[in-house]
User: Which sequence fits this backbone?
């Protein structure tokens, strides 16, 4: 096939198809959310709740007062970070299912440092906690990276297993070495107030961790799409054989990618500890790692997409509690809706070429 | 402290190991079918959760643990069918699909549990499977206690191993499964319906994982709690790899994980100085060691993870 001739002939058609593709990449998620809500309403009818009433709480409770609105961003913050973590590895052809564990590792480090230096000035204490969380997350990510790079072990299995190892490590840390001075609950003492993240809006829980997350969205975009380093990483993801042929060290890239991915998830541990809980406790922020994967898939594994999708998940999570209080619907229904959205978005993306062909055919029929 | 490793301890340990390996064995055998046909299934965790929940619901409303197990298998079939639809038919990435299925399972089970039994309740207890003493055999000292005083599901799980080996290696069906997983295009050329074989294998994996889940809720704990699978499905995925994708290997791997789990519980109660959390990590670390291939290189089915395009 003569590609050049094809291109010049179909320039108009191509630009149209390009627009259509763009339209679909926004349309698919929107339609998916709507279908998921529709399916959710069947469940609501099953438990004899008026879906409209329930969804009114789910969506609008978030905007009823500044506190709730801020909660959307509070809930979205760690999801953005674990979402970026998944995205970063995914773009280099790796599946990091271990965001949860890397977040826990970051949290342990942040608390450890926060307890030691929390009495100092925030300008010293906060960056030190952040640095500790980044390092711990990176360590938790680089181990699966090394195992993958050296032994070829599936990073999927290893990162999943490391989630549980980290979970029990948190449980151990709050049970024994860092248990609170009174020894009553399995949790650490509060970190020093110097390590507390300042609030952005008074009388809400919205802390500057959100700004850190937003900055990282931008930074991850820059690294992956605007630097030669990011280009190499993505080349490994797009075509490992081609990348290797062109002289890129694949093993090294795998290890670096998972280390950075882990570091990003580690920052989520920092924002959760220094911004919200101010101490480490058993079972804190469970499932944030998996929510991050959801956000990444929903957002098409692009940093900005992750950001938007995380806010959507933030809306659902905050609204779910309001819905449970308001109409007695178990808050867990949003987990179902969330999973359905992911499946529908992915299915929509897979069917996109077919949809485009269908649209084209229709158009030709009209001409 | 030094006499904990006596014969009573060992019998109790091995008996518990056998029991604890069963949910992993069920799910791993299921995962083996799926992966042998070329479909990665990390949704085993969610499928087990659905089975655990469905088992409790079935047993609660019918008053029979048998109905519970049947409902668990049927629910497993359904969630397996959904997984097959999105991975084999729509061809969504299999790992991502697995993550989605797991999220869906967590949502579905915790939502319906509350919808059926109320938002704040103590876990309901249901009629569960009781150990069956096999006549004569159960009276053999040591061996009888370890092997022949278990619940019916334990016997079923272990019978599934030779049965699966027979299906996989001695029937034309098994040959189809293996061919589809190794070389789908060749299979297609000789007229084996690739998508159909894969769909059936994934559905089998759902049913078996469901049975494994219901063993936890109806054979071990007699109740359902949120997230009660807590990683066993993922360990089953590892057992498939560790067991090199064949029934005998999967059995051995499941037993190894069962022993690790049982040992962890015993050592905890025996007051060993190691913090119990480290013992809890043991099965997961063992899995990591298993997939490094230090204990022997593993070769996966060649078409594993790749959707088949005609």
Assistant:
């Amino acid at each position: 096939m003569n590609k050049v001739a094809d291109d010049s002939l179909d320039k108009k058609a191509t630009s149209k198809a390009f627009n259509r593709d763009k339209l679909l990449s926004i349309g698919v998620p929107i339609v998916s959310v709507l279908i998921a809500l529709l399916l959710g309403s069947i469940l609501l009818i099953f438990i004899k709740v008026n879906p409209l009433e329930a969804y009114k709480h789910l969506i609008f409770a978030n905007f009823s007062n500044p506190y709730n609105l801020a909660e959307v961003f509070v809930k979205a913050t760690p999801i953005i970070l674990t979402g970026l973590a998944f995205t970063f590895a995914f773009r280099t052809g790796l599946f990091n299912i271990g965001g949860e564990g890397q977040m826990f590792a970051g949290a342990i480090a942040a608390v450890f440092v926060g307890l030691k230096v929390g009495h100092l000035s925030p300008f010293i204490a906060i960056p030190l906690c952040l640095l500790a969380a980044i390092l711990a997350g990176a360590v938790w990510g680089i181990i699966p990276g090394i195992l993958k790079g050296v032994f070829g072990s599936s990073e999927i299995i290893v990162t999943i297993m490391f989630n549980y190892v980290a979970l029990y490590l948190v449980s151990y840390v709050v049970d024994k070495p860092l248990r609170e001075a009174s020894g009553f609950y399995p949790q650490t003492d509060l970190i020093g107030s110097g390590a507390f993240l300042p609030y952005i809006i008074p009388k809400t829980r919205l802390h500057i961790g959100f700004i850190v997350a937003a900055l990282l969205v931008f930074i991850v975009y820059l690294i992956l799409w605007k630097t030669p380093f990011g280009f190499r990483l993505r080349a490994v993801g797009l075509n490992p054989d081609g990348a290797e042929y062109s002289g890129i060290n694949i093993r090294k890239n795998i290890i670096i990618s998972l280390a950075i991915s882990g570091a990003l998830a580690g920052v989520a541990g920092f924002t959760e500890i220094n911004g919200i809980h101010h101490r480490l406790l058993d079972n804190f922020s469970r499932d944030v790692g998996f929510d991050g994967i959801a956000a990444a898939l929903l957002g098409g594994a692009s940093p900005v997409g992750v950001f938007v999708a995380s806010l959507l998940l933030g809306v659902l999570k905050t609204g779910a509690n309001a819905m449970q209080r308001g109409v007695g619907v178990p808050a867990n229904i949003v987990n179902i809706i969330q999973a359905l959205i992911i499946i529908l978005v992915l299915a929509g993306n897979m069917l996109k070429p077919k949809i485009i062909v269908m649209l084209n055919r229709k158009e030709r029929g009209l001409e | 402290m030094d006499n904990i490793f006596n014969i009573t301890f060992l019998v109790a340990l091995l008996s518990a190991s056998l029991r604890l390996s069963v949910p992993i064995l069920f799910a791993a055998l299921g995962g083996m079918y799926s992966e042998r046909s070329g479909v990665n299934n990390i949704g085993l965790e969610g499928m087990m959760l659905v089975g655990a929940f469905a088992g409790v619901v079935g047993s609660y409303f019918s008053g029979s643990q048998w109905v519970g197990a049947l409902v668990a298998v049927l629910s497993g079939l359904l969630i397996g069918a959904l997984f097959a639809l999105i991975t084999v038919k729509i061809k969504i990435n299999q790992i991502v699909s697995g993550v989605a299925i797991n999220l869906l399972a967590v949502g579905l089970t915790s939502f319906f549990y509350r919808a059926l039994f109320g938002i704040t309740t103590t876990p309901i207890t249901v009629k569960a499977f009781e150990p069956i003493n096999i006549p004569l055999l159960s009276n053999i000292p040591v061996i009888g206690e370890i092997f022949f005083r278990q619940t019916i599901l334990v016997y079923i799980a272990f019978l599934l191993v030779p049965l699966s080996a027979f299906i996989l290696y001695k029937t034309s069906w098994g040959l189809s499964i293996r061919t589809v997983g190794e070389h789908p295009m060749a299979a297609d050329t000789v007229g084996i319906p690739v998508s159909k074989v894969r769909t059936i294998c994934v559905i089998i994996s759902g049913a078996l994982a469901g049975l494994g889940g219901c063993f936890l809720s109806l054979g071990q704990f007699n109740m359902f709690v949120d997230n009660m699978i807590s990683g066993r499905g993922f360990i089953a995925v590892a057992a498939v790899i560790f067991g090199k994708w064949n029934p005998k290997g999967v059995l051995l791997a499941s037993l190894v994980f069962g022993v690790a789990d049982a040992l962890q519980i015993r050592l905890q109660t025996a007051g060993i100085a190691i913090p119990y959390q480290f013992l809890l990590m043991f099965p997961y670390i063992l899995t990591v060691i298993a997939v490094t291939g230090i204990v022997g290189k593993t070769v996966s089915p060649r078409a594993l993870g790749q959707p088949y395009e005609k």
Notes: The first strand of chain B starts at residue 132 and ends at 133. Residues 110 and 226 of chain B are 6 Å apart (CA to CA). The radius of gyration of chain B is 19 Å. Chain B touches chain A through 42 residues (CB under 8 Å).
